Amino acid sequence: MDEFTEMRKRMVDTQIITRGIRDRRVIEAMRKVPRHLFVDRSLWDEAYDDHPLPIDNDQTISQPYMVALMTEALELKGDEKTLEIGTGSGYQTAILAELSDTVYTIERIAPLLDKAKAVLSELGYDNIFFKAYDGTLGWEEFAPYDAIIVTAGAPRIPPPLMDQLKEGGRLVIPVGGKYSQELIKLVKRKGSFKETNLGGCRFVDLIGIHGWKE
Ligand code: SAH
Fold first, then answer.
1. Of 38, 76, 99, 109, which one has the fewest beta carbons inside 10 Å?
2. Ligand 1 centroid, distance to 186 Cα (angstroms)
3. Considering the entire predicted model, what is its pTM?
4. Strand, coil or helix: what is 186?
5. If phi over 0 gives left and psi between -120 and 50 gives alpha, with beta otherwise, what is residue 65?
6. Is the model's pLDDT at 117 over the cut of 90?
């Protein structure tokens, strides 16, 4: 077992399983995806620690537990079409690609998207489609989606994302103020939405037409 495999195993045991993540497939994916490759080499020794890390353009890669919590809430079985808003480093994208059939991911900062694309293709993922765009508008062309995840904090849930969710689909998004949000899960049933609050969190801003102004 190499050094990073060892670090990943420890991360999953101490941060993910002990905090109540139960979905076997999520646990396996977190054990498998080499998180360190999504951050700068100078941060490799911290890549599996219990906190978010900086990436380029003043953005962050979420804490491992937050990635696990949000992913588990999407209830992925393997045959889903999943939409992700906020590609960032591409780490969460890799986890989704392990657990869904196809992932559509949107990032507003093109250089971040290009970097993520390079890492993900190097790792061999061929079920991910990328777009540099304002994700608060969703990705109409391939809608509806079984699962939608937003990894930036929104002042309110962008209506296009609710529209682009399939019947029975799950949407997970941090909603609230600029400095703290609540993690909200919506399930679409007969055109209406069942809402659950998964707890407090802190994300960088979702910037766009249905997000914060730049
Ligand atoms: N899931 C990422 C987290 C990145 S931080 C990871 O694992 O690394 C959130 C990202 O959302 C940032 O890269 C930011 O640029 C992006 N973002 C913010 N507003 C956006 C929007 N309207 N559309 C797409 N991406 C957006």
1. 109
2. 20
3. 0.98
4. strand
5. alpha
6. yes
Nearest CA to ligand 1 atom 17: 86
Instruction: Return d(Cα 41, Cα 37) in angstroms, integer.
Output: 8
Active site residue 192: no
Residue 206 beta carbon below 6 angstroms from any ligand 1 atom = yes
Q: Are 135 and 86 in contact (CB under 8 A)?
A: yes
Predicted local distance difference test score (pLDDT) of residue 1:
72
Nearest to 6 by CA among 46, 60, 59, 48: 48
| pLDDT score recorded for residue 38 | 98
Catalytic one among 42, 62, 121, 192?
62
**Burial code of 156-179, b = ≥16 C-beta within 10 A, e = fewer?**
ebbebbbebbeeebbbbbbbbeee
C-beta 204 within 6 A of ligand 1: yes
Q: Is the CB of 146 under 6 A from ligand 1?
A: no
Q: Residue 133 contacts by C-beta under 8 Å, 6 or more apart in sequence? A: 106, 108, 139
Tokens of residue 15, six digits: 């941060």
Tokens 């353009």 locate to 57
If residue 28 lies in a helix (H) or strand (E), which one and from where to where? helix 24-32
**What pLDDT does residue 62 have?**
97
The answer to whether 72 and 50 have CB atoms below 8 angstroms apart is no
Asked if 105 and 78 count as a contact pair (C-beta separation under 8 A), the reply is no
Using the 8-state DSSP alphabet, how is residue 79 labeled? -
